[in-house]
Amino acid sequence: MSSFPQVQKIIQEITDDLYPGIELLFHKVSTYKKNETDTESLEKAFDIFEVLKEEIHSLKKYELKLVFPGIKTLFDEMGAAIPQNIRINELHDLLKKKEECVRNKILDLEVELEDTLVNPLGETINFFKDNYFCKKDSFYKFIAKLQKERAEKCDDKDILEPDSLAF
Fold first, then answer.
1. Contacts of residue 146, Cβ cutoff 8 Å, sequence gap at least 6
2. Which of 27, 82, 111, 129 is deepest in the core (most CB within 10 A)?
């Protein structure tokens, strides 16, 4: 049985639930920043948050415009040749860098806030730790399964090596 339906389900959850949840939290943090009287003590945390926000928006664009459609193209028809215009390795490297930056910003934010996680910034940290990273880990796990399935199915065909399909 193909893992493709599971990947499609995870992509749907990322686009329909995860990213809207993040946007809601980003809005809450922005509102909190506007209404908070003691923003000086949180200035560094807000700076980190702004970088996190930019990275997430950039990552979301790449995923929605390139990654998710590329996955559909690559894995929907397992026997099909890989389109030459999809640069899998480059996308993979870019995603790894962006995901690592997101992880680092969440860690930086957590360290900056120390034990003051009872505000929207803390909610954001918890959401990423409890939801975002888990969902993304599941996504990459199923992509790896799809790679394995494709490699097994296309054993003797002229396709790229499975390692070059890594997401």
1. 2, 3, 4, 7, 71, 75
2. 82
Both tokens of residue 38? 């003691």
Domain ranges of the chain: 4-165
- Quote the tokens at residue 16: 């329909």
pLDDT in tens, 24-64: 999 999 999 999 877 788 899 999 999 999 999 999 999 99
| Of 140, 76, 134, residue with least CA distance to 103 | 134
Q: What's the CA dihedral at 46, 52, 57, 63 to 10 degrees?
A: -170
Tokens at 135, concatenated: 């969902």
Chain CA centroid to CA 94, Å: 11
Helices and strands of the chain, counted as H and E runs: 7, 0
Enter the pTM of the model: 0.83
